[in-house]
Every structure is written in structure tokens, then in C-alpha cells.
Amino acid sequence: MHGKNKEAIEEFKKSLLYNKKDPNTHFYLSLVYDVTSQIAKAIQHMLKAEEYFEAAGRDYWKKRSRKRINEFYFIYDYKKEDFEKTEEIEE
What we know:
mainly alpha; globular; 0% strand
């Protein structure tokens, strides 16, 4: 918000050294990557946020994360398959 995006990224990365599974850190790091046009990293961290929010039973935030991921795919014309594992169904 104050134009200190590089510093924010570094601080969020430091935070992840202490707790790699903190969904809040991944969520907000994703937002900073978005505003700095590092969209692939933004998607990767939002996917982690979604995963960890789900594991913690934080459904509201899981849904918000998924909504943002879908927006990334739509706005920046990325394919879900490029970031998320898809399991093929054997017939």
C-alpha cells in the first residue's frame, strides 16, 4: 500500500521460514506479487493459501482464495492445468 513492495515480499518470505504453512502469509504474499506483476508467483502462493485455509477449516478464506485464483486465470489468461495437478480418470 505504501509502495514498499520489495520490502514486503522479503518480510513475508522471512515469515515463511518460521511457518511454511501459514495461510495468511501466503495469501498476502500473493497479493503483493500480483501488484508487482509476478502473476505466476501470485498464483502459486494463493494456491498454498487455499490449501492451508482448507486444512485449518477456514472455509470463508478458502473460498476467497479460490475466487482470487480463478480471477488470476481469467484476467491473465493462464490455464488451471499449468498450476494445478489434475488427476486423469481411468475408464
